[in-house]
């Protein structure tokens, strides 16, 4: 490369950069050292010379590329520029373009339009050509371009300009860019690629002094950070043709390309070849060359790169292996004036590569033309901007502040001294102290310095000094010095020596010179800092993620938008494809090997593993036999290969798996297989209140028509079932709210769910799920054997290399097995290569043999002692007993346990022994920010470690309870912010039991840990563990668990104590009050059993316990009504159970034994004035309470009957069925005490009939719920139903009770025996409905009945009353919403910010459908359809079954929108009907539809809506 053609970077650096790319990752990057700068180099430009580096009488070098300040520099008229237009061929060496540009006359006071157009056209044509060629370039106006032969090629001619016109060219370019480049990203990039215009005077001794000529120059710098892998098209406006040859401007958009000395536009095959091949190649070449770019400063003569790189790395990492374990904070000064040039600021790209916790920016113009403007969109994390006075001046609660600024998840960008965009002026240095802003900044620094926010020694405080305006930054240095206890965690970066000296002078009062020097780097080029930071971060694929669109193309998912989807890990179509590495290079081979070894050692599979397997045939990932079955399940959901899936908005596919069987890898393999299909793929990293919205945002990103979007396929791995169900419900709610309708599914959830009996769980739902067990097939075993052989061959090759490198070894002797063993344990290199130490791989290879696992544990634990053994023990405890939460020991907690949390030089990476690393891996999890922690490579190993330690008590001296107690007292629970995660896992381990309602496959009374301690050591040891946990965390649910445990073992005094503690800690939690009641409940039962003999005085204790229990249940119901927690139906059920249990006990005590005694008890309970003589005195304190029992039972039964009747079940099916059956069992006991008995005496004949009717139906009432619960007896129910009909008909003065009973029994009889002669006429039942609506207008039942009976149809059987129909329909809708209010749901997680909170509104149940029959037979009860659950309503195959088609009546209507239908009655009345599911229509087309009509408690609902074709 000729000297005259060099850019700001010399060729030496380019060649060095090529070497660097191929160096292995383990090596320190060898960056270029100082080089001699020739006199011809741009940086040698003297600042005061009148001409620049003249080369003889006829040659002159051009002004240095990328320089702004021209000083006194001028060109010489008639000289010829020493450069050629073609350039040197290097992308960094500028090509040149000459234009003579004589369109402006000396007398012109404005630039003529033809001159403007010519200047813009030639500048943009050249600029677009250089940008697409990724080549630097300069266009010179006023230089001969050999047109017509008037001037010599390259001759300096000059252009006449008045002085005031010199500043116009920048404005012309700025105004024209948006009109020629149409995309926003192109406008932004071109704006930054085109440097400010230079106007350089031309010296001519023969020219009159009044005539001034200039050379106008524009530099083009298309850095990779601005251009990425994009093609830049340009379209010139038609009006620009004035002053330009029309043939030179093409029609429409075109792509210019600079090829040597010419700039032309590409078309046809050349354009295709450029976009498909050449663009990628040039972009990669430019990216590599940009790594050496240094446009901001010159290196001092004594500059030592290797020393500074190591110093920079040491200051940033502090002994760690990567920045993810650190909390970096940046203080950046206001840049010097020249630093605001685009190219200078872009050179600081390392700022975007570091995951800053906070940035204190002292440039008030930062979001206009400073660091924030250039780097915010490129940052690794989403940045939130703050003014310190607003967030940090007044705050009292540090936790609330952390939540407000989303610490440590987001980057907190603080405008530390004003913000021009918001008209907040900066303070002068002499007015800084004592201001609110000063105090706010100091408060902010103190906040970040708290050990519960940033652990001691984990902060990295970086001061970036870009100018000499440092006074305020120096104050912040002092604040940090005090709050962070010295300078150990500091790093100061200075552009030059003078800036450092100024800084040193001002901070010497708090920091001595020697300490400052150890933490300062002076004069290190920004390019070298960029390289070092890249090296620290390790290899990161630079792929621009592309995701498919419904148009068949792909859209770029920008970094800024991806940061907003922080709950998701998006898998792109081109994931990992842009590695930028040579597959033959050592770097590539080492990267491939490293990723494979990490995977086999137990780390989670990475996308690179799949990429290396698919693209480079490295065979990292085994294709499991279950892959094809699971693939079919997902494909069926995506492409409707199952009829019942049609029109389901959210489909769930479940992979049940046994722990350690490889479900995560299989699930990700499915996503990898679909990444290039018509689906958008992502992994759910965490579930928060925002996750559902993010999923739908990902679905619609880059789309114009939301109904045509591709579905989202998401993987959810071992997340809490309640969270998953809430997420599904929230997605469905948002779909409905937004009116999103598509002819395909919106979301497919692939859920990996741990289950010990995985196959059994799959068999329950064979169409929706698959299973994976701790077993490998023969095919899989063959793959594993082959892979093991391959790994062993690689190990032997490493041994041979070891032999050849050892001078003391005889090369002729084969290496022995003992020597191999020694080498294996010699260091981490062999730990990373020996397949026998890849425990996760070997467990699979040994097909999960228990003996193999036992041997591994037994042999390895012998070498582990001290704190390492404790770490292993505690991690195993968490992984085994908090398995539902994917538990781990946070890194900072592990450091505290190992005693290195305050040591700035020791790290976990260099103190953990190889034996421990066989068991533990360092994982990353997204909770409140990315958190690192330790967990076992396989849950099977964790369980075996605990079993082994407990079994060998003589060696390890521990039991499960002692391990748990020591764990709770350990140093793990430090003050670090991440301790919140450990606390959450620990509390779950202590209190979370398995329940069907939680989605578990079985039920346990207590957590797995407590169950095991009880079974192996006794409940007292379990109590000591729980008490320790309660003392430590103060969690009311732990106190509740202790109370329940004592209750189980009949230690009621202790149980009462802890139940009271739980209620005191949270009196609004109705579930805790139920537990307090259950203690009395169980104590009552236990004492009654032990009482001998059972006398009235001794029964007082039983009454006391019962009364206390009922009082707790009453408080529980009151707390439930306050609505701070999810609806608690158990407080009503327990209220019924204890009252009926008490009455059963009383029946066993004289004088209430036998039939006469039962009748006496009934009178005692019901008659206000009657008290048996035998209990008159002895039970005198309980008479009033005893007479209130019936009302309490009636109230609780009424509540639960309505709850179960009005609403679809919210609980999981098994839990709901258990609850419903238990409730009705209790209801059937009711007549034993309050029904018609042999000796019951009732004076009123009407009351006698009512009571007998209740007794016949085995309940406390004759209503809708009782009648249709009773028909579950089938034909055996008919006689009693008919008798009840006669009894109620016989009542002359009918009440609302009688009318509801008559209507309900009529419908029930019609359902179970339509030919019964006791069924009244349709007209008679309708008249009862009308009368009931006047007697009980505030209940739902009469309005439901009237809506059904008056539904417009030809064979209605009564006079249609349009007003009454409308009124009933409106009241039903309003009253259901009032009586069945929405309730809060809350799923607590480790951090308040990610705790999911929301409201669930009950879904109305549908009990009747309009059938094809007549009279009462026109209503078909749900029980007649032979379905167990209303979830079948979502399945097309149910609606298309013969039973449904033969019995239900299909109606026709018109679709109003995606959720509503208009039905026109016979009288012309239009009735609006809600659709049970969104209707499959495009847009708002009001198509004709058909549907089945259901009558719900909220109004009519249309089911199985079908758009009529051809209408």
Notable traits:
1511 residues, alpha/beta, 7-stranded parallel β-sheet, 37 strands, globular, disordered N terminus
Structural summary, described in words:
The protein contains 60 helices and 37 strands. By secondary structure, it is of the alpha/beta class. The strands form nine sheets. A seven-stranded parallel sheet has the order 13-14-12-11-15-16-17, sandwiched between helices. Strands 2, 4, 5, 6, 7 and 8 form a six-stranded mixed sheet that branches. Strands 20-22-23-24-21-25 form a six-stranded mixed sheet, sandwiched between helices. A hairpin with an 8-residue loop joins strand 31 and strand 32 (1419-1421). Helix 32 (866-881) packs across helix 36 (939-951), helix 45 packs antiparallel against helix 46 (1130-1146) and helix 46 (1130-1146) packs parallel to helix 50. It starts with 10 loop residues before the first helix and ends with a strand. The model is unreliable at 1-57, 294-302 and 805-830 (pLDDT under 50).
């Amino acid at each position: 490369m000729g000297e005259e053609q060099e850019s700001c970077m010399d060729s030496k650096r380019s060649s060095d950069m090529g070497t660097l790319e191929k160096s292995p990752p383990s090596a320190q990057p060898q960056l270029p050292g100082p080089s001699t700068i020739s006199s011809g180099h741009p940086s040698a430009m003297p600042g005061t010379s009148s001409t620049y580096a003249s080369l003889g009488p006829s040659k002159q070098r051009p002004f240095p590329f990328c320089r702004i300040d021209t000083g006194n520099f001028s060109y010489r008229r008639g000289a010829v520029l020493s450069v050629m237009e073609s350039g040197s061929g290097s992308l960094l060496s500028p090509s040149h373009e000459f234009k003579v540009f004589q369109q402006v006359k000396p007398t012109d006071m404005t630039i003529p339009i033809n001159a403007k157009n010519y200047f813009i056209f030639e500048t943009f044509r050249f600029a677009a050509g250089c940008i697409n060629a990724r080549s630097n370039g300069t266009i010179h106006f006023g230089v001969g371009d050999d047109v017509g032969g008037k001037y010599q090629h390259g001759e300096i001619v000059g252009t006449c300009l008045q002085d005031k016109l010199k500043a116009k060219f920048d404005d012309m370019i700025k105004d024209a860019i948006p009109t020629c480049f149409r995309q926003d990203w192109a406008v932004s990039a071109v704006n930054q690629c085109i440097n400010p215009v230079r106007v350089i005077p031309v010296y001519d001794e023969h020219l009159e002094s009044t005539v001034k000529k200039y050379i106008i120059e524009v530099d083009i710098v298309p850095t990779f950070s601005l251009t990425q892998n994009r093609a830049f098209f340009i379209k010139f406006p038609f009006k620009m043709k004035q002053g330009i040859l029309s043939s030179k401007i093409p029609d429409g958009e075109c792509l210019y390309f600079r090829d040597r000395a010419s700039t032309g536009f590409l078309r046809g095959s050349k354009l295709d070849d450029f976009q498909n091949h050449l663009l990628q190649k040039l972009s990669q070449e430019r990216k590599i060359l940009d790594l050496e770019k240094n446009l901001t400063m010159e290196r001092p003569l004594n500059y030592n790169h290797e020393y500074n790189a190591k110093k920079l790395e040491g200051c940033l990492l502090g002994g760690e292996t990567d920045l993810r374990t650190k909390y970096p904070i940046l203080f950046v000064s206001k840049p010097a004036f020249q630093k605001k040039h685009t190219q200078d600021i872009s050179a600081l790209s390392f700022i975007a590569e570091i995951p800053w916790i906070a940035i204190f920016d002292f440039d008030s113009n930062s979001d206009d033309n400073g660091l924030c403007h250039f780097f915010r969109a490129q940052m690794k994390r989403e940045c939130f901007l703050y003014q310190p006075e607003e967030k940090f001046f007044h705050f009292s609660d540090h936790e609330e502040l952390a939540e407000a600024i989303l610490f440590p998840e987001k980057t907190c960008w603080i405008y530390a001294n004003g913000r021009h965009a918001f008209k907040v002026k900066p303070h002068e240095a002499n007015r800084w102290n004592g201001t609110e802003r000063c105090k706010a900044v100091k408060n902010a620094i103190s906040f970040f310095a708290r050990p519960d926010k940033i652990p001691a020694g984990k902060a990295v405080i970086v001061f970036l000094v870009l100018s000499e305006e440092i006074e305020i930054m120096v104050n912040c240095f002092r604040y940090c010095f005090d709050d962070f206890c010295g300078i150990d965690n500091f790093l100061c970066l200075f552009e030059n020596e003078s800036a450092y000296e100024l800084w040193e002078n001002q901070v010497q009062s708090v920091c001595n010179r020697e300490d400052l020097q150890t933490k300062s780097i002076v004069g290190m080029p920004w390019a070298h800092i960029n390289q070092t930071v890249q090296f620290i971060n390790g290899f990161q694929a630079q792929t621009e993620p592309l995701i498919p669109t419904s148009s068949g193309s792909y859209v770029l998912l920008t970094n800024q938008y991806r940061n907003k989807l922080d709950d998701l890990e998006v898998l792109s179509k081109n994931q990992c494809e842009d590695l930028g590495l040579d597959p033959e290079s050592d770097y590539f081979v080492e990267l491939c090997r490293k990723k494979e070894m990490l995977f086999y050692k137990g780390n989670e599979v990475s996308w690179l593993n799949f990429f290396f397997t698919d693209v480079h045939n490295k065979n990292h990932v085994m294709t499991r036999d279950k892959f094809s079955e699971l693939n079919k399940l997902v494909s069926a959901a995506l492409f409707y290969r199952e009829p019942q899936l049609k029109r389901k908005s959210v489909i769930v596919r479940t992979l049940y798996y046994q722990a350690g069987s490889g479900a995560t890898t299989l699930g990700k393999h499915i996503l990898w297989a679909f990444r290039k299909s018509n689906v958008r793929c992502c992994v759910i990293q965490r579930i928060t209140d925002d996750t559902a919205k993010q999923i739908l945002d990902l679905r619609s990103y880059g789309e114009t028509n939301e109904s045509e979007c591709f579905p989202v396929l998401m993987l959810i791995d071992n997340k809490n079932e309640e969270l998953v169900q809430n997420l599904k419900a929230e997605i469905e709610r948002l779909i409905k709210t937004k009116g999103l309708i598509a002819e395909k599914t919106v979301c497919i959830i692939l859920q990996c769910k741990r289950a010990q009996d995985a196959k059994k769980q799959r068999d329950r739902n064979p169409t929706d799920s698959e299973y994976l067990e701790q077993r490998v097939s023969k095919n899989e075993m063959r793959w594993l054997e082959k892979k093991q052989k391959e790994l062993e061959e690689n190990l032997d090759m490493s041994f041979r290399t070891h032999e050849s490198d050892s001078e003391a070894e005889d090369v002729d002797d084969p290496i022995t097995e003992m020597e191999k063993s020694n080498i294996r344990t010699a260091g981490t290199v062999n730990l990373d290569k020996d397949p026998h130490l890849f425990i996760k791989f070997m467990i699979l290879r040994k097909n999960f043999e228990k003996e193999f696992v036992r041997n591994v544990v037994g042999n390895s634990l012998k070498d582990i002692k001290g704190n390492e053994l404790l770490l292993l023990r505690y991690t195993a405890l968490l992984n085994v007993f908090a398995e539902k939460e994917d538990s781990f020991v946070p890194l900072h907690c592990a450091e505290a346990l190992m005693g290195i949390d305050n040591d700035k030089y020791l790290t976990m990476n260099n103190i953990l022994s190889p034996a421990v690393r066989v068991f533990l891996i360092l994982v990353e999890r997204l909770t409140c920010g990315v958190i690192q922690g330790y967990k076992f490579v396989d849950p099977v190993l964790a369980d075996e470690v605990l079993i082994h330690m407990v079994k060998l008590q003589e060696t390890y001296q521990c039991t499960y309870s002692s391990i748990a107690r020591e764990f709770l007292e350990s140093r793990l629970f430090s003050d670090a912010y991440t301790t919140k995660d450990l606390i959450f896992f620990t509390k779950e381990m202590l209190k979370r039991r398995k329940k069907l309602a939680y989605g578990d496959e079985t039920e346990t009374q207590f957590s797995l840990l407590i169950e095991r301690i009880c079974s192996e050591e006794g409940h007292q040891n379990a109590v000591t563990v729980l008490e320790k946990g309660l003392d430590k965390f103060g969690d009311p649910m732990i106190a509740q668990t202790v109370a329940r445990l004592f209750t189980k073992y009949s230690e009621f005094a202790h149980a009462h104590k802890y139940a009271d503690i739980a209620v005191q800690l949270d009196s609004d939690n109705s579930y805790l009050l139920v537990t307090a009641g259950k203690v009395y409940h169980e104590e009552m039962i236990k004492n009654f059993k032990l009482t001998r003999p059972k006398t009235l005085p001794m029964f007082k204790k039983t009454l006391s316990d019962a009364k206390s229990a009922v009082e707790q249940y009453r408080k529980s119901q009151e707390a439930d009504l306050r609505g701070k927690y999810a609806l608690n139906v158990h407080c009503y059920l327990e209220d019924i159970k204890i009252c009926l249990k008490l009455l059963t006990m009383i029946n066993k005590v004289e004088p209430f034994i036998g039939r006469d005694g039962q009748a006496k008890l009934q009178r005692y309970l019901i008659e206000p004035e009657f008290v048996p003589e035998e209990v008159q005195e002895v039970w005198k304190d309980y008479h009033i309470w005893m007479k209130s029992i019936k009302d309490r039972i009636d109230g609780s039964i009424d509540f639960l009957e309505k709850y179960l009747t009005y609403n679809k079940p919210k609980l999981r099916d098994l839990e709901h069925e258990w609850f419903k059956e238990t409730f009705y069992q209790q209801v059937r006991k009711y007549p034993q005490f309050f029904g018609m008995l042999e000796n019951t005496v009732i004076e009123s004949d009407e009351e006698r009939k009512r009571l007998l009717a209740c007794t016949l139906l085995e309940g406390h009432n004759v209503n809708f719920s009782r009648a249709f619960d009773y028909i579950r007896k089938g034909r055996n129910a008919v006689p009693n139903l008919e008798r009840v009909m006669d009894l109620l008909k016989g009542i002359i003065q009918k009440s609302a009770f009688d009318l509801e009973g008559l209507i309900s029994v009529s419908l029930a009889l019609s359902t179970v025996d339509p030919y019964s002669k006791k069924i009244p006429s349709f007209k008679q039942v309708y008249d009862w409905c009308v009368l009931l609506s006047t007697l009980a207008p505030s209940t739902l039942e009469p309005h439901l009945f009237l809506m059904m009976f008056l539904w417009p149809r030809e064979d209605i059987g009564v006079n249609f009353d349009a007003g009454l129909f409308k009124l009933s329909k409106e009241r039903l809708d309003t009253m259901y919403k009032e009586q069945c209010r929405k309730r809060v749901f809350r799923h607590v997680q480790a951090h308040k910010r990610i705790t999911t909170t929301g409201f669930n509104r009950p879904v109305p149940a549908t009990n009747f459908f309009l059938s094809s029959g007549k009279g009462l037979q026109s209503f078909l009860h749900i029980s007649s359809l032979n379905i167990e659950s209303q979830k079948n309503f979502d399945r097309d195959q149910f609606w298309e079954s013969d039973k449904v088609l033969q019995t239900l009546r299909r109606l026709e209507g018109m679709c109003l929108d995606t959720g509503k239908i208009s039905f026109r009655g016979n009288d012309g009345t239009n009735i609006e009907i809600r659709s049970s599911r969104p209707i499959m229509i495009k847009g708002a087309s009001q198509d004709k539809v058909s549907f089945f009509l259901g009558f719900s408690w909220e109004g009519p609902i249309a089911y199985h809506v079908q758009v009529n074709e051809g209408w």
